[in-house]
């Protein structure tokens, strides 16, 4: 199937879901004041094939807060720099608990279950702090991946810092167990800023392109990750990328996905394309309600799934 054929499919999905904006339920992430102000009446979808063809519909060119979708890119940077050592104090099992849960950390001696829950992403941010200027590195990598400069929304980042009580608790708890090497405030500063990165569906569909083509850069074709590393990031997205809804996502969609409380979800069809959907109203698990529905429709209409 060529990208040309995808445009009517994305248009159909947009036509089907747009009337549900504001009536389908769900709420924007209220615990971060800057996100609580975002209009829920927005929906975007964009894809980019491994060969570089693109299609987009709805609000695909509107920048939004990528939030936990950033965890894919921070993990990529850390794996690139550290290889296997990245996993020394970070697990690879689904948590089955909310993204910001503290419960497992106590009985599991401060080792986060995986790099996609908040605790795990904070531990990844700690590794990046040890390596250098993490914020600059992350922005530079994203800029190269989508061929456009990428920025942090400082208002979102400081709003997170003001209200990030749970993340502070997670970081301090891990520090007490020796999971973090660096100063808690320095690590959280990186974490809050990576969550505050603003990107569009079109940019994210392009930036995540290395995940559908064995680790090769979406524009340049040079290695971002090795083939084995890219396969592993996809495996973690499938099992852990949508928190305690990961089973339901695998059941209904069957694609590696990473969501964020800004309402974005990046999905990978290995060897074919990467897809990004966005709609700010979230379900109880912190995943975009209409984004999830859009991915279900996409899989239904195209038959694309890893299963
Ligand atoms: N699931 C998410 O997107 C969570 C990220 C958010 N910044 C938080 O730390 O709570």
TrEMBL record:
Hydrolase keyword on record: yes
Q: Which UniProt keywords apply?
A: Acetylation, Hydrolase
**In which domain of life is the source organism classified?**
Bacteria
- What are the EC numbers? 3.5.1.2
Give the matching Gene3D superfamilies.
Answer: DD-peptidase/beta-lactamase superfamily
Where along this sequence does the record place binding of substrate? Answer: 68, 118, 160, 167, 191, 243, 261
Give the Gene Ontology MF terms in alphabetical order: glutaminase activity
Catalysed reactions, as listed in the record: L-glutamine + H2O = L-glutamate + NH4(+)
Q: Does the keyword Acetylation apply?
A: yes
Which EC class heads this enzyme's classification? hydrolase
Its quaternary structure? Answer: Homotetramer.
Stated family: Belongs to the glutaminase family.
The record ties this protein, via HAMAP family, to:
Glutaminase (MF_00313)
Name of this protein: Glutaminase
Name the species this protein comes from.
Answer: Pelomonas cellulosilytica
């Amino acid at each position: 199937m060529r990208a040309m054929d995808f445009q009517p499919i994305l248009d159909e999905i947009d036509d089907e879901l747009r009337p549900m904006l504001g009536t389908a339920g769900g709420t924007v992430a209220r615990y971060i004041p800057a996100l609580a102000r975002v209009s829920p009446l927005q929906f975007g979808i964009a894809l980019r094939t491994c060969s570089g063809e693109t299609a987009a519909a709805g609000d695909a060119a509107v920048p939004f807060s990528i939030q936990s979708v950033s965890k894919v890119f921070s993990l990529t940077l850390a794996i690139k720099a550290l290889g296997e050592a990245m996993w020394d104090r970070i697990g690879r099992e689904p948590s089955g608990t909310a993204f910001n849960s503290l419960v497992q950390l106590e009985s599991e001696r401060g080792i986060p279950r995986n790099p996609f829950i908040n605790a795990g992403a904070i531990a990844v941010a700690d590794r990046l702090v040890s390596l250098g200027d993490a914020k600059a590195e992350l922005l530079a990598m994203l800029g190269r991946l989508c061929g456009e400069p990428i920025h942090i929304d400082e208002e979102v980042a400081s709003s997170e810092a003001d209200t990030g009580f749970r993340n502070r608790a997670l970081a301090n708890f891990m520090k007490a167990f020796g999971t973090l090497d660096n100063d808690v405030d320095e690590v959280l500063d990186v974490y809050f800023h990576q969550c505050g990165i603003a990107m569009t569906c079109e940019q994210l569909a392009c930036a995540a392109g290395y995940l559908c083509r064995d680790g090769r850069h979406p524009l340049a074709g040079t290695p971002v990750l090795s083939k084995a590393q890219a396969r592993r990031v996809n495996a973690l997205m499938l099992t852990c990328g949508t928190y305690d809804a990961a089973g339901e996502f695998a059941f209904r969609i069957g694609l590696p996905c990473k969501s964020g409380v800004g309402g974005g979800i990046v999905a990978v069809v290995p060897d074919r394309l990467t897809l990004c959907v966005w709609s700010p109203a979230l379900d109880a698990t912190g995943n975009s309600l209409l984004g999830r529905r859009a991915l279900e429709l996409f899989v239904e209409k195209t038959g694309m799934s890893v299963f």
